[in-house]
Amino acid sequence: MGAYVTITGPDGEFQAYVATPNRPNGRALVVIQEIFGVNKVMRDLADVYAEQGYLAVVPDLFWRIQPGIDITDQTPEEWQKAFDYFGKFNVDTGIVDIQATIDYLQKTHQKVGAVGYCLGGLLAYLTATRTSITASVSYYGVGIQDRLAEVGPQTKPLLLHVASEDSFVNKDAQAAMKTGLSGQDHIHLYVYDGLDHAFARIGGQHYDAAGAALAHQRTIAFFDEHLS
C-alpha cells in the first residue's frame, strides 16, 4: 500500500503515487501512466516494483486536464473518456512533469529509471531522449515511429517492448522503429510474436501472462545493468 506526495514542477503542483519498498535496493523508478490515469493497474505496478526493492513513483500527468483521473479499461464509456483525455493531453508538458518527478527522486537517489506503458511507453521513449533519466523502458509505446528523429547522442539507455500484433502500432510503424533505431548500441528492441497491445496489463483483454513475465524479466535485467 502506497501513499501520495505532492511534486512541484515549473507549471505547478501535482500528485504522485509512491510505493516504498520494505527492502530498498537503492534504486528509484518513475512509473509512467497509460491513458486511464493513475489507476489501480498503475498503482499495482508500482507496488510490484517496490516489492522488488525500487522506490516507485507514478506522477499524475493528466493533472492539467483534471487531477486524480482514475478509470479502468473495462467499459466502453471509460474507453471513450480515456481517449478524450488522451486527445487533450500535451506530450511536451508531460515530459516537463516527468523531469520534475526525476528531480524529486534524484534528491535521494543518484540513478533513476523510468518505465512506461501505452501512452507512457511513448513518454518513456521521450524521457530517454529529453530528460536526465539514467535508463528508460517503453512498453508498447504508441507514436514512437513519428519521433525517431529525437534519437541522438543525448539519448539514454533505452529498452522497448513491442507487440507484433499491436492494434495501435501497425506493421509499418514497427518496421520504421526497427530501421530508425538500428545501429544504436544503447537501444534494445524486443518483439513479442503473436501478442497485442497492452499484453502486460493484468485484467486487460490482451493480457498474456507469459509475455508479461518475459518482458518484466528483461526490464529488471536492464535496470540491474544500468541503475547499479
From TrEMBL:
Keywords: Hydrolase. GO terms for molecular function: carboxymethylenebutenolidase activity. Its EC number is 3.1.1.45. It comes from the Bacteria. Residues 14-226 form the Dienelactone hydrolase domain. It is an enzyme of class 3 (hydrolase). The keyword Kinase does not apply. The keyword Hydrolase applies. InterPro entries: AB_hydrolase_fold, Dienelactn_hydro, Dienelactone_hydrolase-like. Pfam families: DLH. This is Carboxymethylenebutenolidase. The gene is clcD_1.
